[in-house]
């Protein structure tokens, strides 16, 4: 269309646009223009004229974009005049600024935060600025001032630091490791100081750590990152600029929890510091050489001294709770390394909830439960839940004041003890709690609950119980049923953790009832179902436990999905349920496999939960004698636990225990001994010598020695257990009965028949009288008693007892039947019926082979009886051949030098002795025939 | 029909002549005013949760107030704003093109708090479509294009536009009505 044609269109449009529509066509035809022009005019007439605002809208949008990103030098903000731009980052732009109010000359860095916040966010920033401004430390750039522009854009004024980034500084100065660590120590001290003021950095990186020409490191931007995150979260809205609820971070130095969008705390700073140090030490490609922020990047610590590498690895563990408990602890370990002392890099994190020797793990409560994180979670929750902003602010201030009073005067660096500073501080601070917060029952209830959680986390369960009780009593008056339910749940968990199941049960029930009523279909209800189900499981209330856990599973599948981690956790509970209650726990295997599959997909194999799934799987497999599959898994479990939590950790020790337990079950007992000794050393380092927590590995060690035939050692270990229990837990319980039974069994095998009699009779009596006795334990006692009477030649009594045994009482596992067969066979032999005895022994062997496998060492040990029988019948060659094979195949369960080893040697040598005495008689039993007897026996 | 010279003289030429004449004293403050403009825009536009009611005029008015020592008379103000709006249009369009190139350029990581706003892309596209339409309209009908430009980019009132273009208010109304309608057919979307 030419401009002339266009002008014609425009003219016609002008003439017609105010006329009614039915006039358009007649008028256009009357004008006599060509069809193209008429069509164009009609198009325009029908298009209509849009509102001016709408036409201009794209301009406004574009203006907004441009406005957000233009330079600003020369601007005056309060007392500050912006000069050149000196930096630009995720959070905004940084200008060097000059104080321009004429009073005095001062240079500062002004950080202009990109975008603008709402009123609530700005108020929050203003409040928190006060806290940051009070952070006064020579190695932290002071926050001098702050505010918002007349247009509402927030800015922070910080001390201007004339320095270079620490990585450049180290490169320029070619710092040796010792000097570098000195410098880094000052950095750690500053971070630690801030942490004690409850300020975390959350964006530590070399460019935030400047070193002045005088060599003083200064940290920039302390608290700014989390401040912004909190501002957005606290304002409870998606702000145009502060819309991320998580703090800003730099991917290259960010911790996994930051990247996952979870709340970050002091552990986040420890992680970033670890990465920075790794970079400075050359254990990580420098930022400049690194093309991308590679998540999967691992530290190259092999070039470093081993302990130093271990320190870096510990600081940068993916699980926050597995890192150092504090920056001070990190720095202290570096200090130890510099002084040539042993480092604690592989030591336990005492703050991590550790369920030591029972099969109970609740990682969902334990994860990331660092002390400060708990406190921060508190103020965060208060903000989220607030109905009344003022009350919440008052509460948050009260908490902060209280916590600061708790921390005052504390220097965890001075004390080398692992967890005492925190708990001592808590003890000191707790007493003033009620007095300080008398007029704020809501806050008092909150803090009591939180502190209870902290005590629970650091293993001080008595204090935890008391605080929970106080919090519950207060909360009952507060009309917040769900909060009450949460406290009851925690309270029940603590009782459960103390294994006080009868006390835990009604409390867990109350929590469950509240949640059923008010929080149906919530993850909290799943938690309650799981907790009560598990408590009941340990109370042997099988049916209700099963119902609750099944409900938990169904609910979790519905609200979180069948493939969710939450559901995997319920599978683990169900696996534990079957593993604990079923003699043959195929259910445990099924649930554990499912959990493992989900966890592997969702969290990977390096997640602690994966190890938990392995644990249940190993437990289940061991009850079904799936040793071939279970042994490598148990080894993996043990290695993973040691790697996650360090050598000196409850979890590491417990992993070793599990592995040793399985090796014992699999008859590979010689291998189990060093593992258990290592496990005991760990336990003693953690809790001291002679504590209750060392009794489970000691008891297992006694069983291992017993299985090896080393009765002296077994008794010595058992005596240790008895002494510990007599000192710490003198009341009689099922466990003391078990101990007596075990001691009686060992003494019987050792030949101390009188002592054995007292112990075995007593334990049989007690087990028979206790209706809750596990049927397998009762069977074991009965068999032991029969064996003792047989040894005492009270054969009729033994026979009566054996005849009365219900062979199916303890499940149908073939090897248990074999156990009964074997004892019957021994009695037959004692009565002189060798032929029937041999037949029964062969049957017992066959049953062992059926359920344990033909290569299980215990099967070969069982054959000792038949070798003795053969020898007694004068078939010395066959006996000796069998003995040789037993020594070879059962070697994993024969302690060198033990009575059992000696007996085997005798049997092996029997033929030679007889040969010497009577060469012809020995020749009557050809060796080949004797060897054939063995596989025939194995097949049975 | 003999059109007056002004009708088809491009807006730039008009403003150029104004600035060489009575607008000359203001010329030096354009840079400053523009910086001010951006700052005000930053504040105002974001303050109201992304839904701006602020017109470019107000922006430019405020900017002018901050950089001009003395009040400007109505006649100068309109010209001043018109000049500034050309500036603004060029910058905005450049910016939009750069943003578009950025986006096509690929993997920019936006993790930080500031970042890119949702709806940016459609905003950019709309602005470039508007620019494109205005440029085409200028070839076909310079005055109509100028009216639309001054409405969108300078936020001038019909009286001010009439002053700058040296035409009557009625003509401005007519041109604007036509230009908006035409734009509606060009952008192919119901505005």
UniProtKB/TrEMBL annotation, chain A:
Record-linked SUPFAM superfamilies: Protein kinase-like (PK-like), TPR-like
GO molecular function: kinase activity
Compositionally biased tracts (Low complexity): 920-940
SMART domains named among the record's database cross-references: S_TKc, TPR
Organism ancestry: Bacteria, Pseudomonadati, Pseudomonadota, Gammaproteobacteria, Lysobacterales
Location of the Protein kinase domain: 80-338
The name this protein goes by in its record: Serine/threonine-protein kinase
Keyword Kinase: yes
PROSITE patterns, sorted: PROTEIN_KINASE_ATP, PROTEIN_KINASE_DOM, PROTEIN_KINASE_ST, TPR
UniProtKB/TrEMBL annotation, chain B:
Pfam family, one: Sigma70_ECF
UniProt-recorded name of the protein: ECF-type sigma factor
InterPro entries: HTH_Sigma70_ECF-like, RNA_pol_sigma70_ECF-like, RNA_pol_sigma_r2, RNA_pol_sigma_r3/r4-like, WH-like_DNA-bd_sf
Domain of life of the native organism: Bacteria
Organism of provenance: Tahibacter harae
Residues of the RNA polymerase sigma-70 ECF-like HTH domain: 11-187
